[in-house]
Amino acid sequence: xxxxxxxxxxxxxxxxxxxxxxxxxxxxxxxxxxxxxxxxxxxxxxxxxxxxxxxxxxxxxxxxxxxxxxxxxxxxxxxxxxxxxxxxxxxxxxxxxxxxxxxxxxxxxxxxxxxxxxxxxxxxxxxxxxxxxxxxxxxxxxxxxxxxxxxxxxxxxxxxxxxxxxxxxxxxxxxxxxxxxxxxxxxxxxxxxxxxxxxxxxxxxxxxxxxxxxxxxxxxxxxxxxxxxxxxxxxxxxxxxxxxxxxxxxxxxxxxxxxxxxxxxxxxxxxxxxxxxxxxxxxxxxxxxxxxxxxxxxxxxxxxxxxxxxxxxxxxxxxxxxxxxxxxxxxxxxxxxxxxxxxxxxxxxxxxxxxxxxxxxxxxxxxxxxxxxxxxxxxxxxxxxxxxxxxxxxxxxxxxxxxxxxxxxxxxxxxxxxxxxxxxxxxxxxxxxxxxxxxxxxxxxxxxxxxxxxxxxxxxx
Length: 461
Hints:
Blueprint: H1 5-18, H2 26-37, E1 78-84, E2 89-94, E3 99-103, H3 104-109, E4 117-118, E5 123-124, E6 139-144, E7 147-151, E8 157-161, H4 162-167, H5 172-183, E9 198-200, H6 201-206, H7 208-221, E10 223-227, H8 235-241, E11 254-257, E12 273-276, E13 288-295, E14 299-300, E15 303-307, H9 308-318, H10 320-326, E16 330-338, E17 342-350, E18 352-354, E19 360-363, H11 378-395, E20 401-404, E21 411-415, E22 419-423, E23 426-427, E24 435-441, H12 443-458
Parallel strand pairs: 9-10
Antiparallel strand pairs: 1-2, 2-3, 4-5, 6-7, 7-8, 10-21, 11-24, 12-22, 13-21, 13-24, 14-23, 15-20, 15-22, 16-17, 18-19
Helix pairs in contact: 1-7, 7-12, 9-10, 9-11, 10-11
């Protein structure tokens, strides 16, 4: 079936029913309504009446209902297909009167026949060196309303399905819809008023619809609570198997967050942890983090998170010069010690990474591992510190910080490229000290599983 706006609307309505309602600030609400207009989000989300964080307390969600099976949207038939010789394009007119154009070189490059594609791998086997980039076309034949055949000058025949072509239309709206289907790049921003979406750990493990809702919400909102995990180590590894595999780092496949003597990481102390992203000392920081609470502190130990993307956009609006500096200057990070094995890692990152369109795609900030080496011209040092302080001041405003307390059996899953997280000072019970088990995954594995779950639940590409 074609994954279109109506399918997206049904999916998000189902996800909305599945999760604890997300209380959003006005900016997040506007973003969500924009998504709703494109059929990508639930249509009715209340705005939290407080801007000071009184709505953050999470609640146990009801069991996830089975999302309704979306109806298959019929593919448009092709009314006419015309070769535009001058433009070297194929123009397809659809039954509803709209039209799409496709460059001939792209069509030839993407021939779906067994000679040009390795069908078992869905991979192109036609070398680019064999393509005539200025190719013409011998004949165009609509063999049935849903198929078109192209005969090339060398008499090779390519056949394309209407739904396959329609999804790959080169119009800006079609390209945007396809990119959002592939990457779910739209985000919902939030502050201290967010009520963390919550679901059952066991249902995520055993139900595809629940797992899909979990990963989709993790991508859009950036944080999801899972309740009801066993109070023993290994649950984050079990959760990772639902996706694929854990990311191995110098701290191991999993790691134990406890107050340790001669700690090799500031997380392994009982003091305050300032807001940070994990592991910017790596050239490719982990994309997703799991934390499982096995035992909570006697006093303190509450967790804090901030939507780093939301605060970055606040910085761009309020202090564009600081945003420009943090999104252009590369800063050194380091981490040295011994754990899974000994290590001495070094990296360079922009504090705020943006893509070619200026959209924020990753935050790289950890004050503990920011290196004393600062590879900047002398005259840029002061502006850098001023800009970084401006960003930190924004992220620590009460309206931007969401505070929550994990209880034994809770697993928090969050986007490490987007969220900054921290922890308040704590005092442990000497008999049963505070203990969290953590693990990392990369977004490549998470998005791969999300796409596979979406196909399993809804069908499609």
